[in-house]
Amino acid sequence: MLVMLVPFAIVVALLTLAAVLISRTYNRLVAAQQVAVNSFSQIEVQLKRRYDLIPSLVEAVRSYMGHERETLEAVIAARGNASSKLSGVSGQLNDPATVSSWSASESAFGGAIGRLAMLIEAYPELKANETIAGLTEELTSTENRIAFARGLYNDTVTTFNIDRQSFPTVVYAAAIGFGDDLMLLNFDDQPEIHNALKVELVA
């Protein structure tokens, strides 16, 4: 009888150990995922700030550059596309198609802003306008905050992905609800934004 109890005790001990290991892993992955989601929410805040700035900037520029209607309309259209896709991303950060589609829309929006910034740079009367100068300064600050928030998000996602892919977690990650990596954000860099958005008031 005692001989039979020993293997049973070993099995119980192993099952208990496995349960503790899986429970700790689950809690750790939940925590890491929530840190990443929170980091993404910081990106959302800055992107929404950028979305809010653009209509005012476009309207201020329009009074000077009505002939650049195509460029201005392209900026507004790109803003609308990126903004509409943002709301569906935060809950699907592990879906490559969703994140890729939204990232492409943000890259297109960044390109449109860059073209607008270069136009502003080419017109001295625009650079002398206090409203436009103020808006472009806010936009530059926002672009920098977006870049910082994106870097922080990518760091937290990398931490989560490494943990999820590490052995032995990778063996049972899918079974406890973590079958996919979170997606890194790789917007196309738009150096023309930072180079052109240096509008200063003309003395």
UniProtKB/TrEMBL annotation:
Record's keyword annotation contains Membrane: yes
InterPro entries linked to this entry: LemA-like_dom_sf (IPR023353), MamQ_LemA (IPR007156)
Signal peptide: none
Pfam families membership: LemA (PF04011)
GO cellular component: membrane
Membrane disposition: Single-pass membrane protein
Subcellular location: Membrane
UniProt keyword list: Membrane, Transmembrane, Transmembrane helix
Principal cellular location given in the protein's record: membrane
Family: Belongs to the LemA family.
PANTHER family per the UniProt record, alphabetical: PROTEIN LEMA
Name recorded for this polypeptide: LemA family protein
Protein source organism: Rubripirellula tenax
